[in-house]
Every structure is written in C-alpha cells, then in structure tokens.
Design a protein that fits this description.
By secondary structure, this protein is α/β, with parallel strands linked by helices. The chain folds into two domains: about 35-120 and about 225-360, Periplasmic binding protein-like II (D-Maltodextrin-Binding Protein, domain 2, 3-Layer(aba) Sandwich); about 125-215, 3-Layer(aba) Sandwich (D-Maltodextrin-Binding Protein, domain 2). Helix content is about 40%, strand content about 15%. It is built from 15 helices and eleven strands. It has helices at about 10-20, 55-60, 65, 80-90, 100-105, 155-165, 180-190, 200-205, 230-235, 240-260, 260-270, 280-295, 315-325, 345, 350-360; strands at about 5-10, 40-45, 70-75, 95, 110-120, 125-130, 145, 175, 195-200, 210-215, 225-230. The protein starts with a strand and ends with a helix. It comes from Actinomadura bangladeshensis. It holds the Pfam family NMT1.
Length: about 375
C-alpha cells in the first residue's frame, strides 16, 4: 500500500504560496488516513527528487511507515527557508532543513527545534570548474555564482562566505540555474563562474562529467548539518508520532546503507522520472554514488553503533557561533535551544541486524 505521496511545487508557485501562508494546502493539524493511519506532512528543501532522498522511498516501499501506523505526505520546496516557513505556519508537521533558518528563526521567536539529525556535516560549499582562475572566496567578487534559486540556502551560504572574509556580500551576482539539464547547461556553457550547491547536487553534476574543484571557506569545518525540525509545542504534543516517524526513517537509512542499489530501485518505483532515459546500468551507478554521499557519516554501517539521528552538542554550538560570526544572527544563544536528543533512544528501538538481513535478501 502506498503511504507516501511525492509532490513537487514549482519554485515560483512555492514562493508565492509561502508568502500567502499556503492557504491552499490547508492546515496540518494531524488526523488519520482512510485506513486509520496517522497522517504527517513532511516538507523538504530540494528543487527535485534525486537519489539523495532514496531513503524516504525505502521507508515507504519496505513498509516502514505503514508499520509505524503512519501515512506520510512529502512536499518539496526550493529552499530550507521556505521549509521553515511551512512548519512555522502550521501548514506542515515536520521540516527537513539545514540550520540557518532554524537559527535565524530562533532569534525571532519561532521556536523550532531539531529532534533528529539527517545531515551529519555542513553540506553547503563553493566550487568552481576545474581550470578556473578563481582560487579563493575573495576572487568571487564581481563573479556569477550559480544557485538552484535566489532564495536557496546555497545562495545564503555564498553571501555568507564573502561576509566572513570581510567582503561585500552583494558583490556577486546570484544566477538561478535550477536543476537537471538547465543546471548542467549553465555550468558547461560558462553562464556561471562558480557554484553554491550542496553535497549530493555536486555529485549529480560530477556524474555528468563536469570536473569541479572546491573553494575553501574557513570556519565551516565540523559544523552541524541539520535534520528534522518541528515547533517545540508540537514536539511535546506529538512526541510519540515523531518517534515513530524517526524510527521509520532510520530503518530506511539502515536498509539503504546495506543495499544502496535496492534503495535506488525503490526511488524509481515511487518516482519513475528519477530514472531518466540513459542505460539503466549507468543511471544506477550514478545514483548509487549520489546516495552514498548522503549516507556518508550517518553512522549506521556495521560497527558504527545504533544511534541514528543523534546530534553532537559541540557541532550545534559551533554552528550557532558560525551563524553569529557570519552575521546571520545578532548574538549567540545556547545550542540546546534548537535541538534535543531526547527521542533518539526510542527512535533506535529496532533491530539493525534484521533490517540489514532484509536488505541482503534483495541482493
């Protein structure tokens, strides 16, 4: 039975909807599906579906959501900022987002908190085509920087990188290049001089033969990457639901680590357009590489323990400090204000070995 509906909002529509409070979507106030499962709306910040999110497909296809009595609807938005807006407004229950909108929102009283980690490290970075004369952040002044959307977290990071070096954050021209063929054409044609994207998106680009080199951004080492966030009041009221959501997702991560090829096939099953038109063997190889980039560091491989989603207080603290240094927020605040590990033990109450064994049976 299909328990997850994969929905994409076009960037322009999503931006307008965010401004209007997404009235058309209706309030996300809980409820049950026709077959009696608890319904959840989950927002993620991505311009399109890709193998980096194959773990979500696994959680549906393998029945992990259903086993937790959940009916999960996933909505895509162009940026983490817009994801945060949806959670704050109550239009979705949970948002998968990077730290910037949560930290900024905290200073404005939005009261979002993380209950499980998804990205184990800071995912945004700057890169340029191999052979480019751009060698440092300072060299970006006056240059064209490609981003998925001008309101994306990548765009925020690009401006922040300049600001941290004492440079004018408006001295670059942000060029929205979307995703897929549009993005590749912009890079290959020289429409942009540099890129401000994230881990899996870079892998997608490099899979197509585009060689890139990183631009170091001092101060971004060992930062918290982000994860699942809700309003604190909702976490208190819906604790059991969030535990079940986290557990179902964790199982999908463990399965994907054990058999990434099967995970990609699950994604194709739910979202066929992600398969593309190239030879299946080539597409599978490329998408497994993307998935492995996302799985790297999630600590679910054999011998790495069984604490998926646990956040490092030092990493969150460093991220709050980074946000302050970068000028994203006016002053630091206790890291514990925006995260809790209180649900992690319950989320991980399942047999990792059983999930891995089930993955091996698919090979």
């Amino acid at each position: 039975m299909r328990t997850i509906r994969l929905t994409r909002l076009a960037p322009a529509v999503a931006l307008a909807a965010a401004a209007l409070g997404l009235a058309a979507c209706g309030d996300s106030s809980g409820g049950t599906s026709p077959d009696g499962r608890d319904t959840i709306k989950l927002a993620i910040g991505s311009p399109s579906w890709n193998a980096g999110y194959a773990t979500l497909a696994v959680s549906e296809a393998r029945g992990y959501f259903a086993k937790e009595n959940l009916d999960v609807e996933v909505l895509l938005f162009p940026s983490g900022t817009q994801v945060a807006q949806q959670v704050i407004s109550g239009k979705v229950d949970v948002g998968l987002m990077t730290p910037e909108p949560v930290a900024i929102g905290h200073t404005k009283g939005t009261d979002l908190t993380y209950f499980a980690q998804y990205w184990t490290r800071w995912i945004y970075s700057l890169k340029v085509p191999e052979g480019s004369g751009i060698a440092s952040v300072a060299d970006l002044e006056g240059k064209r920087v490609g981003v998925t959307a001008v309101a994306s977290s990548g765009a925020t990071f690009a401006r922040t990188a300049l600001k941290m070096q004492g440079l004018d954050s408006n001295s670059i021209k942000l060029v929205p290049i979307g995703a897929g063929a549009e993005q590749l054409n912009a890079i290959k044609s020289g429409k942009v001089d540099a890129l401000a994207l994230w881990d899996t998106q870079y892998q997608i680009v490099e899979n197509k033969g585009v060689k890139l080199k990183p631009l170091p951004v001092p101060g971004t080492e060992n930062l918290f990457g982000g994860g699942f966030a809700v309003k604190k009041g909702d976490l208190k009221d819906e604790r059991d639901t969030m535990v079940r959501l986290g557990r179902a997702f964790a199982k999908g991560v463990v399965f994907s680590q054990a058999d990434p090829e099967a995970a990609v096939h699950d994604l194709w099953k739910l979202h066929p357009e992600t398969k593309g038109t190239a030879a299946e063997e080539q597409v599978l190889d490329e998408q497994v590489k993307v998935l492995k980039v996302r799985l790297d560091g999630m600590k679910v491989a054999p011998g790495e323990g069984d604490r998926w989603g646990e956040m490092d207080p030092a990493g969150v603290t460093a991220t709050v400090k980074f946000a302050t240094t970068a000028g994203l927020i006016d002053k630091e605040f206790p890291a514990a204000d925006i995260f809790t590990n209180d649900l992690i033990a319950e989320i991980n109450e399942f047999s990792y070995a059983e999930v891995r064994a089930a993955a091996k049976k698919t090979s």
